[in-house]
Amino acid sequence: MDTLTLLIVTLIFSLALVQSLFGVGLLLLGTPLLLALGLGYEQTLLWLLPASAALSWSQVWELRNEKLANGYRARFFGLCMPVLLLALALSLHLDLLVPIKWLVLGLLCLSIALRLKSSWFEQFKRLLAGHLSLGLIVTGLIHGLSNMGGSVLTVLAAGLYARKRQVLAAVSLDYAFMASAQLGLLLLLKPALWSSHYLLGSALALLARYLIGRQLFALTQDGLYQQLITLLLALNAGLLGWTLLGMAA
Fold this sequence. Notes:
This protein is an all-alpha fold. The chain has one domain (3-248). The protein has helices at residues 3-22, 26-36, 41-62, 72-90, 97-115, 118-130, 132-146, 149-160, 164-189, 199-219, 222-248. The longest helix is centred in the last third of the chain and has 27 residues, at 222-248. The chain starts with a helix and ends with a helix.
């Protein structure tokens, strides 16, 4: 195994632990990191999408009976998925990555600030609950155009639900379908890019979850879980800011 492949599989295993806890990580953090290692965008997706989809589907199955208020699942299928598919088609003709990155960075910084002050966060949660449909539409649009819907999704789910199992159930449902839709479209348009070695990422992601990730999730209390999500959002914002500064340099 060459050095680059070793770095890739190590990164996938590590980020799978993050995704085991929060439902996001492989695509959200892995995309800019693999691009920084010199991989092309399509090659990056072929490593990360199968891994993310496999891990998310395992979470969806395990949390299938978790109750999600506000008709979350029905709204996801009725609103987020159609917009996602439309945005994926538009992404073939539009390049909006840079302005969307700035938009997401602003949203992350605002969300972090609100989460750090409890009275503001309570108002923010009520706002999210009252505008869930809009939040899911925005998630599908941003993810289809930029592969960055996980940022919006984390803000949305962690604001709607206080219990970690509810947050993970909501996020993993969205990510399972979004990653599968992206992978399906990519393979439909460019089947020659596929190679069976990309399935190594799926195996590593599942191994990380069942060896370590599930135990970490079980040991994390709900209060600490919300604090860790704030830390994840800050890490995401920092990484996003770093990539934007690199693009501007």
